[in-house]
What does this fold into?
Amino acid sequence: MAPLKAPDKDRYERGVAILREVAAAEDPQVLQDLAGVAPDLGRYLVEFAYGDVYARPGLSLRRRELAAVAALAALGNATPQLRFHAQGARNAGAMEPEINEARSGQTTGALTAQDREIVAVARLTALGTPGHQELLLRIHALLDAGGSPADVVETILLMVVFAGFPAALNGMAAAAQVFAKRGLGSRAS
It folds into this structure.
């Protein structure tokens, strides 16, 4: 098996800086845990998830972390990661009632209308096509609440990290339907 190419230093540095901010740690535990068993997975995590996806402009780190909490809670199969991202949301400035609303999916009034719709779009995208009709409604609701098409795209694109490419692709197809219906054009970001 051929060795992997050398890491992209810019992506890695950008990604590790964001991971440190989320983890509130100079040497995040996840990288320590992966170092002995799968260092390449640690590098992918840093470069792709944080260096590419999290580093994109648009959503604040707080909103990204609330969306991550919503998605991971909905999936129900990643308790350690849910705990990590709930703490990451705190580290990014989210308050406990906001995190609880994102986690539960129950409206409590802690989140603003835009934040509530961002976490709903994240949750439904992560769950995939069974919630397709509701996802369409929540994308409309996010736009109606003052969110931009870029907010929709960034929320769905973030789900590639937590729910995979198929979920994100299906979410983007739903976004494209909503954008077309609203006459927003084919490219929102």
Observations:
- The mean pLDDT is 93.
- The CA atoms of residues 20 and 56 lie 16 Å apart.
- Residues 8-55 form one domain.
- The longest helix spans residues 165-181.
